[in-house]
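Example for tutorial group B:
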């Protein structure tokens, strides 16, 4: 299961010269503990609204031609992909910068709730995302 947001189709587009992508995967550790799985939850309308805001902010800072965000929800295991952010622009600098901006804002502002299942048998809600820089 996944939440997906894309501004438009890239079929037939010829004006972009750069595509920057980021794929985030699940680690098997967090906050000093071993993690065996994670469950991500969200409210689709709320999440889509925040992703729109993030992409709009990025589009004001950089000349973007398209964006794609795919974020999984449900149960996820270590080494599985969680999120894809892709950005198309005429130039690589804008694509790289916007991709990083979108990913960082997504991590800190998008309403996804994460519950970790630890190898000790305990569960815990993740209160704060790790720093990205």
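The residue assignment follows.
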């Amino acid at each position: 299961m996944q939440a997906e947001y894309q501004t438009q189709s890239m079929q037939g587009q010829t004006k972009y010269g750069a595509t920057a992508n980021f794929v985030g995967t699940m680690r098997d550790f967090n906050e000093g503990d071993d993690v065996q799985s994670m469950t991500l939850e969200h409210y689709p309308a709320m999440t889509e609204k925040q992703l729109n805001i993030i992409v709009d902010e990025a589009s004001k800072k950089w000349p973007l031609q398209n964006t794609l965000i795919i974020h999984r929800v449900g149960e996820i295991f270590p080494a599985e992909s969680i999120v894809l952010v892709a950005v198309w622009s005429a130039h690589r600098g804008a694509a790289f910068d916007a991709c990083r901006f979108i990913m960082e804002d997504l991590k800190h502002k998008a309403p996804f709730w994460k519950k970790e299942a630890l190898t000790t048998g305990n569960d815990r809600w993740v209160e704060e995302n790790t720093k990205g820089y």
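The beta strands are 2-6, 18-25, 29-30, 33-42, 64-72, 74-76, 81-89, 112-118, 123-125. Compare this with the pattern of hydrophobic and polar residues in the output above.
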